[in-house]
Amino acid sequence: RSADGAGIARFVTARRWARDITGARTTAVIADYLMLWDALQGRLWTAERRWRHGLQQHADCLLCGQEDETCDHLLAACIFTREIWYHILSTVELQHTVPSPSDTLVDWWLEARKQVPGGAFTRGFDSLVLLVSWELWKERNRRTFDGVCATTTQVLHRIRTEGESWIAAGFSKLAPLFAIASA
Predict the structure, then answer these.
(1) Which residues form the Reverse transcriptase zinc-binding domain (predicted)?
(2) Which of 138, 160, 156, 115 is nearest to 62 (CA)?
(3) How many CB atoms lie within 10 A of CB 106?
């Protein structure tokens, strides 16, 4: 039996990791969670996956042009992505947790969250990973489908703007990290 979107939204919002999400953006944020879930499972339609299925001519990452675009590369190991992570994590004094070129998203995330001080900040860090991953995925899609390439500064601005929207919509665990970044 297939579930409709509302049923999926009710199921997801009943889970502990989604309890701090309220307001009009709930459905959009749940879609963001589902995107990250697909990424963690290696099921995003990256260039490498599309190439493997004969849907495009190459598997190159459009963010860096140096490696095949896999989920792990796109969201953790890509040089463009690591530059974004460095800027974001530096603002909250976590620059020592920036992913390395050989990290998988899951391994990096689990290791980095161990270095985040305090329980509330850990949930905020998880939200930050979701936010940055979502914005990187959208940048990848803009480059893939619209032929538009943003600079790191533009992507960082989008992350900041989207993060402020998430906080305004009730994504409360992200707020302490944004407060540190603004100080």
Answers:
(1) 35-85
(2) 138
(3) 15
